[in-house]
Amino acid sequence: MAKIKLHKDRKYSIYSCGLSKLLPFCDNEHRPYNEKNGTTYKSVKITASETIEIDINSSNWKIK
């Protein structure tokens, strides 16, 4: 699980593929992986309507 602070009116890309080195943010590592493996991973887009801190988790994340 990751705890992140989202700032009002800012757009975030959260990764869901388990490949990003910027947990929990997307660094587009899924793009070459998708091309090579025929997969369709995409980031989850979030725009915060207010500044808030959230807990997020994904079964694909490899948290160290």
Largest sheet: 2 strands, antiparallel
| Uncertain stretches of 5 or more adjacent residues | none
Count of distinct strands: 4
Distance between the termini: 11 Å
Helix/strand class = alpha+beta
Q: Largest sheet, order of strands side by side?
A: 1-4
If you compute it from the alpha carbons, what radius of gyration comes out, rounded to the nearest whole angstrom?
12 Å
Helical segment tally? 1
Could you spell the SSE succession in H and E letters? Answer: EEHEE
Give the DSSP E fraction (strand runs of 2 or more residues).
25-35%
Shape: elongated
Q: Please, what is the average pLDDT?
A: 89
Approximate helicity band: 10-25%
Task: Describe what this molecule looks like in 3D.
With 64 residues, the chain is α+β, with helices and mostly antiparallel strands. Helix content is 12%, strand content 28%. It is built from one helix and four strands. The strands form two sheets. It has a two-stranded antiparallel ribbon with strand order 1-4. It has a two-stranded antiparallel sheet with strand order 2-3. The longest helix is centred in the middle third of the chain and has 8 residues. It is elongated. The N and C termini lie close together (11 Å). The mean pLDDT is 89.
